[in-house]
Amino acid sequence: MNKKISKKSSIGTVFIYAISSIVIILVFYFGYRGVIGLDKANQDSIAERMQLRMKADMDELSMHYGASARFSYDTSKYFTKICFVELHLNSTNELSRNATLRANHTLIWDSVSSASPSNVFGMGERFFSFDAGKMSVNCSPYIYCQDVKRGKVSFFAEGEGDSVKILCQI
Fold it and tell me: Mean per-residue pLDDT for 12-29?
């Protein structure tokens, strides 16, 4: 009779271990998904914050003719490069810009050719664009891309009274 009881209790123990293992696996799985979701939301928040700060900074600088400033923004880990594009050019300069965009930056070219007002672009694992206000770029081909280094992008700009000029570094 003791053998039957121990056999039943060992089956019960195996069942408890199996259920416990399933519960632990589910906790880890949903915990991992939760952490990944939080990281994605955090990265989206960083990109949104950069966009809002840059727009506000460009609006402020545009009012001060001749003033120049160095800007530095935290960027999402999904971006490796931030590009600035001058949208309003004469026909000769526009041809030069468009040729460069078609050859090297097709997503930006799609945006510009569709007459989108976006003039700042984040590129890398993800792509985003937004309008940072009236902007010019002081170097040909009127597109300036700055690499993201250690999660930050830095560049120089100058106020022009009613717009901002992005200063290309050589």
Answer: 87
Phi, psi (deg, nearest 5) at residue 25: -60, -45
- What predicted TM-score, i.e. pTM, was given to this entire model? 0.76
Residue extents of the structural domains in the chain:
39-167
Three-state DSSP state, 145? strand
Q: How many CB atoms lie within 10 A of CB 88?
A: 12
Token code pair at residue 152: 């930050």
Record the tokens describing residue 163, joined without a space. Answer: 């717009």
E strands present in the chain: 68-74, 79-85, 120-124, 128-130, 135-137, 143-147, 152-159, 164-167
**Per-residue pLDDT tens for 64-92?**
898 999 999 989 888 999 999 998 888 88
